[in-house]
Amino acid sequence: MLDPKFFDLLKEDYGISFNDKKLVERAMTHSSYDNEHRDLNIGDYERLEFLGDAVLEINISEYLFTHFPELPEGKLTRLRSDIVRTDSFARFAKQIHIDKYLQIGRGEEKQGARQRHTLLEDIFEAFNGALYLDQGNEVVEQFLTQVVYPHIASGEFSEDTDFKTHLQEKLQQAGEVDINYQVIDEEGPDHDKKFEIELVVNKKVLSKGYGYSKKHAEQMAAKRALEEL
Amino acid sequence: MLDPKFFDLLKEDYGISFNDKKLVERAMTHSSYDNEHRDLNIGDYERLEFLGDAVLEINISEYLFTHFPELPEGKLTRLRSDIVRTDSFARFAKQIHIDKYLQIGRGEEKQGARQRHTLLEDIFEAFNGALYLDQGNEVVEQFLTQVVYPHIASGEFSEDTDFKTHLQEKLQQAGEVDINYQVIDEEGPDHDKKFEIELVVNKKVLSKGYGYSKKHAEQMAAKRALEEL
User: In terms of domains, do A131 and A192 share one?
Assistant: First the structure.
């Protein structure tokens, strides 16, 4: 049976309470575990993965379409494929502790499947499929706003979204500059912190940025400065 | 400028009235036309195609997930890729007369781009992206229920969804049978017809089916008969 701690974690960190707990258990279960526990009648994540894959695709696409109005289609497509690939999804899966709570059979466990990126990717997709069915797309959006979008906003996936590097290159065209990012405020509990950053260029405050992480807030400050230059 | 007849057609056939007509014009415009008419400031379909691709993916995935609860993930994935490929989308594009109303430059026109399946596919995606942004996903769903889902329900894309053939095979296991599908009712205007079909096996009515086309209604009757056998 799925560890109740996973449900506590979803509630505490993301404010998510599933109506149908069997659905999220199915999303977290590999067929090898289902086969070993036929009596529990859980099923496995595979059909939910099919749905969740498309759920992630539309939400991430809409986020990129809206937040990067200046990017042409080709760059949007490259950025999307950088985000929706196995290693990124495996990382997001670990971030919400899917690796700890997923259910696999004994044989798979011995072979180290719990850390296999393709499995973590599949279950991250299945989890989002279950969330979509149980809570609707608005809750999926809120969840991704906590788990996925901060990484995109931090410029982790593409140099097109790396505003800090753009800004530095632009400022240095006019000669040596002294660029500093300073945290001036942070608020909220650990799992939902917000940072405020000041971008200081040659000892003059150029812009401010807010974000889910220091890096995110720095990118937002750099983005604003670029818009104003 | 986009032919107003296209807007009339959308209204009459699908009940769609765009709030932002510039958005659908952009979805219907190739960059070659935009380049020849810089003063009109239309833009082209490319970014909307990026979004629309994902809009179609989630809606078709949810339709398949819901309507084929018995299909495992592998078959769902194969079925989805049969539906979302270039030739199918080009066919749907023609069905709503995108080929007639899309805007391309003179050079492209001469080279026959108006009938090119990859272009028709792209614009069908862009159109759905525009519809999603302007009207929300519920209207997209209604639109696909008229334009795309009937083809899936008719079993056009996979033998897994071809209930008529399944039923025939099953019935013939017990020897020769006489299988007939008879239209017993049709209603609604031409562009929104509904058919009612009786499935008659050895002169006995086995089931009824309703659908957007005769073939769809026949498949639904066969599906019901299979469930009851």
Answer: no
Name the 3-class secondary structure at B184.
Answer: strand
Residues B128 and B222 in one domain: no
ipTM of predicted assembly, 2 dp:
0.79
In chain A, the number of structural domains is 2
Tokens of B215: 């073939």
Task: Determine which helix (DSSP H) or strand (DSSP E) holds A207, and give its type and residue range.
Answer: strand A204-211
Instruction: Give CA separation, A185 vs A193, A196, A198, B106, B167, in Å.
Output: 10, 5, 9, 57, 68
Whether A43 and A141 map to the same domain: the answer is yes
User: Any catalytic annotation for residue A20?
Assistant: no
Query: Using 50, 70 and 90 to split pLDDT, how confident is the model at A207?
Result: very high
Q: What's the CA dihedral at A6, A7, A11, A15 to 10 degrees?
A: 100
- Whether residue B125 is annotated as binding a ligand: the answer is yes
Question: Do A129 and A55 contact (CB within 8 A), yes or no?
Answer: yes
Inter-residue contact B104 to B134 (CB < 8 Å):
no
Six-digit token pair at B201?
């096996």
- Which runs of consecutive H residues, i.e. helices, occur in B96-136? 98-101, 106-110, 117-135
Considering the domain architecture, whether residues A150 and A44 belong to the same structural domain is answered as: yes
Q: What residues form DSSP beta bridges with B211? A: B195
Domain span holding position B176: 162-228
CA distances in angstroms from A6 to A17, A50, A96, B198, listed in the order given: 11, 22, 9, 51
CATH code for position B140 = 1.10.1520.10
Regarding beta strands A194-201 and A179-187, do their DSSP bridges make them parallel or antiparallel, or are they unpaired?
antiparallel
Tokens of A192: 């939902």
Domain boundary among A126, A156, A186: A156
The verdict on whether A53 is a catalytic residue reads yes
Domain identity same for A24 and A132: yes
What is the tens place of the pLDDT at every residue in A3-31? 999 999 999 999 999 999 999 999 999 99
Active-site residue (options: A34, A53, A198, A218)? A53
Q: Would you give per-residue pLDDT tens digits along chain B (229 residues)?
A: 899 999 999 999 999 999 999 999 999 999 999 999 999 999 999 999 999 999 999 999 999 999 999 899 999 998 999 999 999 999 999 999 999 999 999 999 999 999 999 999 999 999 999 999 999 999 999 999 999 999 998 888 877 778 888 898 888 888 888 999 999 999 887 666 788 999 999 999 999 998 877 888 898 899 889 888 8
| Distance separating the N- and C-terminal Cα atoms of chain B | 57
With CA atoms as reference, the chain A residue closest to B72 would be A47
Contacts of A77 in chain B (CB under 8 A): 50
CA atoms within 13 A on the CB side of A147: 28
Alpha carbon distance A90, B209 (integer Å): 45
